């Protein structure tokens, strides 16, 4: 089993297009309601602290389920069943938002959405396993691009439809997208693994890989800040500046267009030439700048322009953190490693919105953003020290 080739099965062009369409539909279902979630909860009287809990619930279930799902997927050597479950749960979650449209309903819905996103492990590993090691970075960036494209289409749909059909209406679109993604997942072709199950004790050895832990922690910082700011509280700041619902949606669209564009850039030759040593600390600097400037924005125009910066975080930084974390992992252990990676960064997705909401309630949202800027500075230091030590090791064998 050791040394198994990553590209033992090859996508036909038609299969790849169908698969990436399914990925976009899945993330459309997961994120169409996001631009208006925080403002909607505020409108119906939900406080900042409980809103933070609602946002954190999405990461909580991912934290609990991602590593066991990755371990199970590697053990049985199958991903299709997890992909199908993810598409179903993405639609099921929005049923809670439709029929139980209060704070508790959104809390329950986000728990189910988190379960759906926990299956993202299998989406990514199944796709990247079709490509050789030298193409892993571009393959990772490509699937992240279609991930972001699905979110972008969702944000466009919600921006155009929220004022007309309300939160319940856009959640119906979420349910329909999840069902269509499930239909496409039924057409996935997955060959049976010839070698049978792998012992769980052998798979858990990935937990000893220091490099995996380091980039998982950096992803914890990146994902936690992204979910808390660009996808949540930044929209509330925009609303506090007097922006109409259309501008709130436009804010999310600018962010997602930026994310799609930078994800495409991350798979291009120029970006790959500079490599993670340059881009990881550089984008963490941009995140810090973003967290300092957003709560200081004097008008909606300034804030809309700033939404380009978290697009760099999603498109470039997350792509590189994922590929760096998976570098050198044996093919038969990739789901377990991906499960650990995603479970660790789910801690940030759970904790960051909760403590930012509490800081906002106790002091101000500005204080919360400044704390996040400080955490991003930690990411800069960790990445710079890692790559400096790596260079020294190469120069002093």
Radius of gyration from the alpha-carbon trace, in angstroms: 20 Å
Q: Helical region count?
A: 15
- Corresponding CATH architecture: Up-down Bundle
General form:
globular
Span of the ends, CA to CA: 31 Å
Q: Could you say how many structural domains there are in total?
A: 1
Which oligomeric form is depicted?
Answer: single chain
Main sheet summary: none
Subcellular location: Cell membrane
Keywords: Membrane, Transmembrane, Transmembrane helix, Transport
Pfam families: MFS_1 (PF07690)
GO cellular component, one term: plasma membrane
Structural account:
With 397 residues, the chain is mainly α. Helices cover 81% and strands 0% of the residues. It has a single domain, classed as MFS general substrate transporter like domains (Growth Hormone, Chain: A, Up-down Bundle), CATH 1.20.1250.20. It has 15 helices and no strands. α3 packs antiparallel against α14, α7 packs across α10 and α14 (334-362) packs antiparallel against α15 (365-395).
